[in-house]
Amino acid sequence: MSTRIFQIRVHLQDHGTPIYGDDVYGMNDWNKALSSRRGITRPLLHAQRLEVEHPVTGEIMKFEANVADDMMSVIKAIWPAGETVEF
């Protein structure tokens, strides 16, 4: 596991907003519910867009990814009006 993912997980937990599905820093009752009701067995952590500088060329590389279907189903269940929010 990368150090950055670890840091994100620890900081979010420290601020009272742990990542759903995170077995180490998450909330056990939520994780059990996600697993039993929705079959989710992974941390629901997503980056919609990443930009990094290529280490050799210096070119800015951009990557984008849609929210996974399992994550979107949880978002809609928790926040039904979430369709109007850009994810």
Describe the structure.
The protein has 87 residues and is an alpha+beta fold. It is built from 3 helices and 2 strands. It has helices spanning 3-14, 28-38, 69-78, and strands at residues 49-53, 60-64. The chain has a two-stranded antiparallel ribbon. Strand 1 (49-53) and strand 2 form a beta hairpin. The protein is globular. The mean pLDDT is 83.
Q: How many helices does DSSP assign?
A: 3
Average pLDDT level? 83
Query: Could you tell me the strand content as a percent range?
Result: 5-15%
Distance between the termini: 25 Å
Radius of gyration: 15 Å
Q: Which term fits the overall shape?
A: globular
What structural class results from the helix and strand content?
A: alpha+beta
Helix content: 25-40%
Side-by-side strand order of the widest sheet: 1-2
SSE string, helices as H and strands as E = HHEEH
Largest sheet: 2 strands, antiparallel
